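sry for the spam today, last one i promise. struct tokens for design, 371 residues
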């Protein structure tokens, strides 16, 4: 039998091999190379397994199963590659992980996109004063008047009071399972409600003398998710139609990438309009390239060609989804896309750069259809 040390060493090598296999690889080189990469790692794993069951293992044990051959490996590789590469033009960026949910419906891409759109809509009312009984941004909101108004913007009707709103939708088991756009309630029966935006924060209309703002969630009594409309309403899709200069040929690519990464409707189009005015050949003075103005080093790190419109759109979607997950706020994600994550972290918000502040305002204005 192999010694303890030899088994531990072999297991360590196996663990390293499996870790390499599990690493998300963003590549635009196509399924053929993916198969080759997979086969290489599988061969390495096979080698480590052979070392584990080497000559010091009795013959009877080694006869239980023969080592994997290329004939065994290739069907597996082809199956996985075909699943991982369903669209040849897809850059294969791996979607960032969102909080786990307690049902399949809570975890769908369309629901995630809807939630992000709710948050984006809610953020445009930051600064509106609190008014007891208020339901209008012109005069002010109370907490449930604010949430009702935001969902109404997206074409979804919810009841007027916090207590009534708490009785609809799908309950979410815990804050760790909450997604952006979920409603968080306080009290039983509920007397206060806010809109969860991620990272333990919410947007709400707090109380008399205050304004709609971003605050810490604390410990809510309950959390509810309102389902996305089964058929996107005109209001839900409005942001996507606010970029009339977008080439028609790119519209389905913008839509597919937004759905894949759970981005707010219209976000990618708005970014493309501000970044390059939909020019796939644009190159900035700083060296940013293509439709989505991705820096060459960044494009190389995620495996996309920034001058290829399809790859640029999927690459930008991956980056924006990652920043939304990191910062939990649409303005901060946009600021990070423009000025870098470090600048946002350094200033604890949108950096005080005129260019970045104008950029965030312009993109959000386009998304809200105010241009």
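last one done:
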């Amino acid at each position: 039998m192999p010694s303890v040390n030899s088994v531990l060493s072999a297991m360590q090598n196996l663990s390293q091999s499996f870790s390499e296999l599990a690493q998300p690889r963003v590549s635009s080189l196509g399924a053929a190379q993916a198969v080759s990469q997979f086969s290489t790692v599988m061969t390495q794993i096979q080698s480590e397994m052979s070392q584990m069951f080497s000559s010091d293992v009795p013959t009877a044990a080694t006869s239980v199963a023969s080592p994997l051959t290329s004939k065994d490996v290739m069907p597996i590789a082809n199956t996985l590659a075909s699943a991982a590469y369903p669209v040849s033009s897809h850059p294969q960026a791996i979607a960032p992980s969102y909080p786990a949910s307690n049902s399949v419906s809570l975890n769908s891409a369309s629901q995630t996109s809807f939630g992000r759109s709710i948050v984006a809509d809610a953020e445009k009312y930051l600064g509106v004063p609190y008014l007891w009984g208020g339901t209008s941004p012109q005069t002010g909101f109370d907490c449930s008047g604010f949430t009702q108004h935001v969902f109404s913007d997206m074409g979804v009707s919810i009841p007027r009071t916090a207590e009534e709103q708490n009785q609809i939708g799908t309950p979410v088991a815990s804050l760790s399972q909450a997604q952006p756009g979920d409603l968080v309630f306080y009290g039983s029966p509920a007397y206060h409600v806010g809109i969860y935006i991620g990272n333990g924060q919410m947007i709400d209309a707090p109380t008399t003398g205050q304004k709609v703002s971003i605050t810490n969630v604390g410990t809510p009594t309950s959390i509810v998710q309102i389902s996305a409309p089964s058929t996107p309403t005109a209001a839900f899709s409005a942001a996507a139609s606010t970029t009339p200069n977008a080439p028609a040929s790119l519209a389905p690519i913008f839509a597919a990438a937004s759905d894949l990464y759970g981005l707010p409707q219209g976000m990618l189009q708005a970014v493309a309009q501000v970044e390059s005015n939909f020019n796939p050949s644009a190159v900035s003075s700083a060296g940013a390239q293509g439709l989505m103005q991705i820096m060459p080093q960044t494009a190389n790190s995620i495996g996309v060609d920034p001058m290829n419109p399809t790859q640029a759109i999927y690459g930008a979607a991956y980056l924006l989804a990652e920043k939304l997950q990191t910062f939990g706020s649409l303005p901060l994600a946009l600021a990070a896309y423009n000025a870098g994550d470090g600048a946002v972290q350094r200033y604890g918000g949108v950096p005080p750069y005129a260019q970045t502040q104008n950029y965030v305002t312009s993109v959000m204005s386009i998304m809200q259809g105010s241009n």
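Residues 148 and 160 are 6 Å apart (CA to CA). ok im logging off now
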